[in-house]
Design a protein that fits this description.
elongated, 4 strands, two-stranded antiparallel ribbon
Amino acid sequence: MHPNHTPQRSVEVHHPTPIPSPVVHPAPVVPVQPGHVPAVASIVLPDGRVVTGYAIDAARPEPVTAKPAVSRTAVNVALGGVGFLAVCGGLLLLTSFIAALTAFIGQLIVLAAVIFGGWIAVQVLGPSSHTGGTTVNIRRAVFKRNHFHR
């Protein structure tokens, strides 16, 4: 479309409504009578005027209430309980470790017995032919002065 042929749109303008600031009323000043009559103080200003009035103590803040102290016995009991639980947990882990180590060593012994027993069974029950060796019939042998005779 050509710029001259664009339809006209109506534009609506919104103006923000200001929010009125809250009206602050100063707190009324209540005179406080002192417990005793303070001394009158006078101050001479640099231009020679004298100002006389009472000295007023600065307002002191309310004392902070202290937290109740935790008794030393309660702290010791709590720490003792934590230490006892730590020791019990450590002993449980140590006992489990020793049991596992004992089972492992037992399994190694059984494995060694099976392997060694199998080797002996093969030696005893295997073929008795010796290749390259001398076979001696011990029943017919005669021993004389550390000499073997046949």
